[in-house]
Design the sequence.
């Protein structure tokens, strides 16, 4: 879940980072991903105590972005995916690429790549489609070029 970009959880979901209570630590990347997702102090709390927590707490600390009824999990996740799919593919790809670069190599590396990313988008047909849709006050139809 800490590797997800967006997480939808059922209101009755339970979570735990239990490794410390088993003589281990979150060796699968949790020590890196937890602070990025929830902030260092929230990460410490759950990585160091092994305490379980519910969906409301997961939402509060930022590792879950939406809490829904258990029967609404899949429809809510599909709705979120459809909203993302309606956006400009080049913009979505740039968001993912630049955010991942910031996580992997720091904000200076990501900031250094912004100009290349925006130039690629400004040279696309999709930017013109998006601006025209904005002027006409209608949703844009992007093609990824």
Sequence:
């Amino acid at each position: 879940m800490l590797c997800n970009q967006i997480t939808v959880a059922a209101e009755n979901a339970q979570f735990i980072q239990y490794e410390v209570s088993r003589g281990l630590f979150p060796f699968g990347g949790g020590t890196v991903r937890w602070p990025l997702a929830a902030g260092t102090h929230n990460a410490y709390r759950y990585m160091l105590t092994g305490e379980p927590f519910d969906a409301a707490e997961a939402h509060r600390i930022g590792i879950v972005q939406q809490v829904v009824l258990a029967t609404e999990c899949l429809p809510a996740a599909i709705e979120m995916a459809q909203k993302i799919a309606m956006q400009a593919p080049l913009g979505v790809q740039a968001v993912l690429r630049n955010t991942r670069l910031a996580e992997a190599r720091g904000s200076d590396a990501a900031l250094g790549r912004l100009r290349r990313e925006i130039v690629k988008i400004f040279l696309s047909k999709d930017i013109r489609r998006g601006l025209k849709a904005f002027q006409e006050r209608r949703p844009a139809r992007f093609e990824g070029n």
Residues 86-135 form a domain with the Lyase 2-enoyl-coa Hydratase; Chain  A, domain 2 fold (CATH 1.10.12.10). The first strand starts at residue 8 and ends at 10. The beta strands are 8-10, 14-15, 53-54, 66-68.
